[in-house]
Amino acid sequence: MKNILILADLSDTCNNTLRYAADLACAANAERIILLKSQYVSLYAQLLPSADFVQLSADAIDEERRKDDAALKQMADRLTTSCGANIKIEVATSSEPLLRAVRQVIADHQPDLIMVGSDVPGGEESIVGQQVVAVAKISTVPVLVIPCGASRKPLKRVLVPVDPNAIERLSLIDQLKQLQFTTEPEILVLCVDPEGKRVGHEAENAGSFKQFLQEYEYDVQYTDDDDTVKSILNYASQNEVQLIVALPGKHSFFYNLTHSSITEALTTNSRLPVLILK
Description:
Elements: E1 3-7, H1 12-27, E2 32-38, H2 43-47, H3 58-83, E3 88-94, H4 98-109, E4 113-118, H5 132-138, E5 143-147, E6 157-162, H6 175-178, E7 186-192, H7 202-213, E8 218-223, H8 228-238, E9 243-246, H9 259-267, E10 274-276
Parallel strand pairs: 1-2, 1-4, 2-3, 4-5, 6-7, 6-9, 7-8, 9-10
Antiparallel strand pairs: 5-10
């Protein structure tokens, strides 16, 4: 993993993501970290007064951007101190909305991984944290979501929830090696199967698991719990998992959840990051 893109704002959520990113970048021998901050101001915000009857002027917008630039420089300086001279720290700002800015940076800089923090319910809300799901859906590279309060730990056990209709997507698990997260983690596969899709296909499924996970130590369990989020988080807690991996595609548990549900899934257990593969 050479290049890491961090979506930045000025929240505590982002500060925690920076700490996690510094540890990960050093462990994975990354070469560059890019801090991206969207400074987009909508036309409505410029033309119409806010609820407090404050209307943004051109001077006020410029002042906010100067504050952003100073804060980003401080973030970059902290990362430089944490990561050392071997990892280049760059700052990028954009006047485009966040999703458009992310697409542009991906095209221009080709990061290997995007890192974004997620909010804790009832705590401070971050602009980036509110758009976690949208960023994950438009990104063409893996996205690592860091719940506020999570700290990086060596990956010994990785949980992969999977729909029985999409077992072949386990072939994407090799991205863990490509990203240099870890060399040989134990893969815990949790088949989320409330409709009993596995019935009659047990032997076929076992062969597929062996085919796609033959290079790993792995274990497969099934759950028929209708509450997908609860079953995944309970299993992760009971089995001392350090990372949840979400597979892409229409059968992914991640993409089938609503925004509020995925926020709950990512933050109820604040110690577990979620890696969304592509």
